[in-house]
Amino acid sequence: MAGGEPVSSKKSRRTFASRLNSLIAPFAPSLALRREAALVRREVLLGSGHYDGAGRGQRGKDFRKNRTDAVEALRADREPLSYIARDMLRNNPRVVRIKRLLRNNIVGAGIKPSVRWSGDPDDPRKSQVEALIKDHCLKRNFDADGVLTMLGQQSLALGTIVGDGEVLLRRRFRRPGDGFPLNFQVQVLETDFLNRNIDGKLANGNHAVEGIEFTPIGQRVAYHLYQSHPGGRHGALPASTRVDARNVIHAFDMARPGQHRGVSWFAPVIPLLHDLQRYQDGQVKRQEIAALFAGILQTGTETEEIEGALEDLKAGSIMTVGQDESLTFTNPPAVEGYEPFMRATDRVIAAAMGVTYEALAGDYTGVNYTSGRMGRMDVDPNIKDWQDNLMVAQICDTFAAWIAEGIEDVADIPRDLWQMIWTPPVRPMVDPTKDYKANETAMRSGQKSRRQVIRESGGDPDKVDQEIKEERDWAAENDLVFSGDSGSGAKDAGKKGESE
């Protein structure tokens, strides 16, 4: 047993030591006594520690003590968990709901890019960079399959990570004659494409872990990918090719140091989700039976004749039977305790998946502003963590590097002139009247900047400032003053109107 020792091995070793002491005792009784005392002290120290959680005693007999590293702990179970999660995404409504909640809260309509220009603000190349990003990344030109935009690929990638625990995004270069604004496209791949058979020491001095190639100092240098999905209808296993790591994003939520691959986010709750769905299906069937007013006919008549008569039996009708026949009705069982049990179990599942029970079940009974705010206080740090450390750090920043390299190649615009900023989707406010007032107070007291508030609401501060300026200039030109205006342009327009 990995990480622990079978009880039979301990007993056999203790028996051997006792027999050895019995042989030593006639010749060296003092030595045998010291050995026996040492054995007793050792057993006391190892067998009766101070912490029940260490797995000692009757209460800890079900604990599994496993000292394998992060790679070996996932090696055998990662793929089965992924396959089961995919099946649940096809058939289990709770799993579908959880995936949609996580995807909508973390990515939503997309973590949107904006350009922060560090050169001359009037440099026409700034507009050229923005146009290339818009024409290539925010349209289907970005997708190697020609289906999604870059924002759509973010959503697909996050959904794949939730189910499978990991995802691959591969950069594929394109020729100028292919007609794309930039010289590459991105393909989203399931990690089934990794050739797991390439594992261990390689001829070039590197080593591989399930298709991922590392240098002797642990740097990822390549991925060995199948040319087509190994689960497709092609007969033999497809050939694999070595792809430079600079052209691959391998995104997953790292839970342990040294972890090379991800595991399905549903792993801790898969048994509970499965059993709960079976329980709910059983209760639905039980309700169906309870709703039926069925009768049991006991008779000596042939079965075929009875079936013919029963075909005309409808709800509320009365069936006439013979003197030697009797008709009794069932007493359907009542369905009790269903809702409290489902609510308690759904809370456990929601807590494990980092969402609120109300969002998972769609049950907002008894929720007020305070409880809704507290739920957001629990969930928002999870969302922020996944946005910053998973989506932006692992996927979006690599997208930005690929885009900068592509723009430098096709337009000869140095990448040090600009930087790509990512803005996550806006988090819905629990109560806008209270939350807007809180933001206003935070800005006035200096705890938040106006730009920070705009970013937190999912906006781009530069674009917001530009639109405000355009609106105020237009209002000044057309002698319009609004009650919310406080800018100099609006004041000038008001003074002009007064002088006239």
Task: Tell me what the structure shows.
By secondary structure, the chain is an alpha+beta fold. The protein is built from 16 helices and twelve strands. It has helices at 7-24, 29-47, 70-75, 78-91, 93-106, 124-136, 150-164, 270-290, 303-310, 338-353, 357-361, 369-411, 432-444, 450-456, 461-477, 488-499; strands spanning 112-117, 166-173, 184-189, 200-201, 207-209, 212-214, 220-226, 240-244, 248-252, 295-298, 326-329, 418-423. A hairpin with a 5-residue loop joins strand 6 and strand 7. It starts with 6 loop residues before the first helix and ends with a helix. Mean pLDDT is 84; it is low at 1-5 and 493-500.
Task: Write a compact overview of the structure shown.
The chain has 500 residues and is α+β, with helices and mostly antiparallel strands.
